[in-house]
Amino acid sequence: MRRETADTANVVQFDSVGVRYEHGPEILQDIDFSLPAGSFHFVTGASGAGKSSILRLIYLAQRPNRGRIALFGRDVGAVRRYEMPALRRRIGVVFQDFRLLDHLSTLDNVALPLRVAGASEDDVRKFVPDLLNWVGLADHLHAKPPTLSGGQKQRVAIARAVIGRPELLLADEPTGNVDDQIAVRLMYLFEELNKLGTTVLIATHNENLVSRLRHPRLRLEHGRLRQD
Amino acid sequence: MFSRRSDLPLKDDAATRFLPWLVAPMVFLCSIALAGAFIISALLGRWDRDVSGTLTVEIAAAPGEAGESAEQTRIRVEQALRILAGTPGVADARALTQEQLVGLLAPWLGNSDLLKELPLPAMIDVTLRPDRQIDVGALAEQLSQAVPGASLDDHRVWLSKLIDLSRNIERLAVGIVVLIGGVTSATVFYATRSGMAVHHDVIEVLHLIGAPDAYIARQFAERAFALGLKGGIAGLGLTLPVLIAIGLGARSLQGGFLADLSLPFSGWAAVVALPAVAALLAMLTARVTVHRTLARML
Ligand SMILES: Nc1ncnc2c1ncn2[C@@H]1O[C@H](COP(=O)(O)OP(=O)(O)O)[C@@H](O)[C@H]1O
Ligand SMILES: [Mg+2]
Asked: Taking 60 as the threshold, does the pLDDT of residue A4 lie above it?
């Protein structure tokens, strides 16, 4: 079943991937899909269907128990530990719970991907305030996350995910904390980034949202994938 | 090498905040041990120079009337010379002539013909090879057993025992320094580990954003360096008055070989460098600890 050569035009490729937690049953079985460069996909399914697990596999927070995953044409199983940071920097992630660092200001949170990549403070000053301005947080550069609203935190999380101009953007329920109107605006933001060449994968259980935007979806049901 | 900003909130860590309080007494103890080692080693150098070079073997005159005594003494001298010739480390052994002996005694007894009639002890001047260590104690033992009335210059035997003792004290001091370094390093290790546990979530986020291990390790290492230096300087602050007091006390002793109980310059340099050494040790330990611990994370 295993394809020997990864298609380098695919940013992500799953082959017969299976995931289980501890000694439980496989919550994901025989997952096969690929995300071509520049594509925009949704991954949908009920709560507990395994959406977050698929994203965690892609951003290298978790290993599959079975099958093979290729990122940017590279077999993830063969990636050495010291190569992972560089690989992860090509991926921007909006975590479901944001995972902002509470002790850092908005500006420092968004600057993190630049700083861990060794960017200069000049670059930080040049790009971060601009981006925060663009997501409407110009007045909150020095605010700490605990003082921000859910929607504001979400925009900080998105800014942090895109500041490093990732080739692949993953977002886990990015519209979970906002009303439908803001949700649609966020989607437009992701579409803008997609038009600039970023491959996008968004996990959501918001059927309403998915049906309003015409992008292919990966539907998870009973641990298996149904593509339409 | 040192950036001022840190993404990890290490400044408020209970796990590492106590480190200076540990490093300060460690640096204090270490300085005292180190100063002791330097003082002893300087003393040793001087004593070694005193004992090395030459020894004197004295052989008491054999009993009996003048002629026979002189003959017996001559045989004893020859025995002693044979032993000395067979001792490694002895370059030359030469018995003083009657004339030389008389010459030595003349200032006290006058240049009297009577001296020539007295049963005089014999003396052997021993020249040692500078490149060989000689066991003075063993040689004294050997001579006194093989040759009746022979004895090695007492003062030097005693000094050589003192040198052995000092050398052991010196080794002990070095051992203490190493031990203190090990304890400090182990403490930094556990403090860093608990710090990493406290900040596990932040570290995970940094990882997922693409931070290399070195980026995370650097922040812990810089913090450990700062804390180590702080404790080290405090420890030095405790040490200096003590060392200065010892130095003044030694100077007031005046005369005798104890007068030179002062710390040599190299000793001062080592003690003053100790806070930096402690800081570097803490930094290196934290760095290695973080790398080792992270290697077990995905
Ligand atoms: N760390 C974990 N340990 C054990 N079970 C887990 C863990 N994470 C997720 N699961 C289980 O795996 C299944 C899929 O979870 P998840 O991927 O979070 O789904 P979704 O994001 O679609 O809600 C759920 O049944 C959940 O309980
Ligand atoms: Mg989820």
From this structure: no
Domain segments of chain B as ranges: 10-49+159-297, 61-148
For residue A5, being part of any structural domain is answered with no
Chain B residues in contact with A125 (beta carbon < 8 A): none
- Ligand sitting nearest the alpha carbon of A46: 1
**Local structure of B280: helix, strand or coil:** helix
**CA of B215 vs chain A CAs: smallest distance (Å):** 7
Sort A161 into a burial class: Cβ within 10 Å, 0-12 / 13-18 / 19+. buried
A 10 A CB-CB count for A53 gives 23
Contact: B209, A88; criterion CB under 8 Å: yes
Task: Give one word for A35, left, alpha or beta, with left for phi > 0 and alpha for psi -120 to 50.
Answer: beta
Please count the CA atoms within 13 angstroms of the CA of B13 that sit on its side-chain side.
23
- The alpha-carbon gap from B9 to the nearest alpha carbon of chain A, in Å, equals 7
Side chain identity at residue A151, one-letter code: G
Residue-range definition of the domain harbouring residue A36: 10-227
Which residues in A201-223 are b (16+ Cβ under 10 Å) and which e?
bbbbbbeebbeeeebebbebeeb
Nearest-angstrom CA–CA distance, B284 and B4: 18
Structural tokens at position B143:
């001579």
For residue A74, the 8-state DSSP code is E
Strand partners, A20: A26
**Is the shortest distance between the CB of A166 and ligand 1 below 6 Å?**
no
- Residues B15 and B8 sit within 8 Å (Cβ to Cβ): no
Cβ pair A82:B212 closer than 8 A: yes
ipTM of the complex in this document = 0.90
Residue A3 lies in a domain: no
Given a cut of 50, whether residue A2 has pLDDT beyond it is: no
Residue type present at position B32: I
Tell me, yes or no, whether A109 lies in a domain: yes
- pLDDT, tens digit (0-9, with 9 covering 90-100), for B74-119: 888 898 899 888 888 888 888 888 777 777 777 776 666 766 667 7
Q: How far is CA B259 from the centre of its chain?
A: 18
- CA A88, CA A74: separation in Å to the nearest integer? 13
Q: What is the CATH number of the domain that holds A218?
A: 3.40.50.300
Residue A199 counted as domain residue: yes
